[in-house]
Amino acid sequence: MATLSFAAQVAGWAKDIPEAVEAVRNQSAADVVKEMQTLDSEGGKMPFDTGFLQQSLLASTAAMPRINGALNPVDGKTYSFDFSTIEAVIAGASLEDDLYFGYTAAYAGHQEYGANGRAPAGFVRSAVQNWDVHVNRNAEKVKKAFGL
Q: Could you tell me the pTM of the whole model?
């Protein structure tokens, strides 16, 4: 569990270079999302059948996207995820903005936490728990890139 806020983690070495802080935050947020979205067949925890759950991910700086009880896949259709919409929200966010990432598929909660005998996948919780890992790795990359 994180003991320091994001700002406290990077403030000591990046206080005079806001671009460095933003680079660490943006890449770390993107890395968490990519980890959430990594399919179980590719070593992640995201279950995959049609791709509908994966493509239902939304990002916002205003509020957590909500599960829509009526949002289900169309029989026989497959779906693909486009990371560019998530990237656009991350890139457009100021450092003062909170970033929210949430799945809108009707069954998203059942997949995350388990239901009706299905084991929980935990694709969101496990990725979020790795925030510090992503921040520390990206901080090292940014330090080198900025010569800090």
A: 0.87
Indicate the burial class of 61 (C-beta count within 10 angstroms; 0-12, 13-18, 19 or more). middle
Distance between CA atoms of residues 34 and 127, nearest Å: 9
| pLDDT tens readout for residues 14-63 | 666 778 889 999 999 999 999 999 999 999 999 999 999 999 999 999 99
Q: Which value, to the nearest 10 degrees, does the dihedral of the CA atoms of residues 6, 44, 104, 69 take? A: -130
Looking at the DSSP assignment, which residues form a beta bridge with residue 137?
A: none
Q: Which of 71, 12, 23, 81 is nearest to 51 (CA)?
A: 81
